[in-house]
Fold this sequence. Notes:
The chain is an alpha/beta fold.
Amino acid sequence: MRASLIQIRVxxxxxLDSRRRRAAALVKDQAGVDLVVLPELWTTGAFAFDRxxxxxxxxxxxxxxxxxxxxxxxxxxxxxxxIPERSGSGSGSAADDGTLFNTSLVFSPSGELAAAYRKxxxxxxxxxxxxxxxxxxKLVTVRLPQTTVGVATCYDLRFPELFRSLVDAGAExxxxxAGWPESRRSHWTLLxxxxxxxxxxxxxxxxxxxxxxGVPQAGHSIVVDPWxxxxxxxxxxxxxxTVEFDPAKxxxxxxxxxxxxxxVLGLERPRH
Length: 272
């Protein structure tokens, strides 16, 4: 299986329309690979909090349309990173009131929407994304011909229980778009390898380059195999990281070293 991680540069001097066109062109250039991945919030910048509301889109907005066409033109599975989504399709549900979400979009090679994932763990503690956006509450997996993909986003990487749940749901390859800051880059690579080792799964983690609202981005998109070996890693600047990997290695690893079978759940908590 062949995957390309597009570590696109996000800078404030490029318009949203220009970057959207440029991202679509980069996706189309990847015709012939199986899976293409874009980063988190590449339309606005993950730290450009003051632009979230102004640049939020409905799920099937301009970015959706551009990425669906790019996936179809290239004939690839496309994880189109995430967008600031504004809910409001008129269904009357509690999550349909104009709330913003950090929403990932996955398209099939025919350009059909295969999945949408609203980020569960929002970063910022008492500011930024944590207060400006709602939280998702659903696990998302996508069945590709070669592997089952589990979808997570950026800050989710710090919460191993989410990834164990994805594995329990059948995930073999974990795809994680991010807007990770350079100041915590060591955590990025460490956690990507940890999630691969503990879940005996491939990790494809795609970050951004450039600077978001004054916050330098880590870049260093990374692909890790089920034993924790780094198969490929990007630098800090805009780059397309392409790697070939064998999805069958997940089953082989889990069979040869069946650690997941030794999980012990439901332990009694201490009483004080």
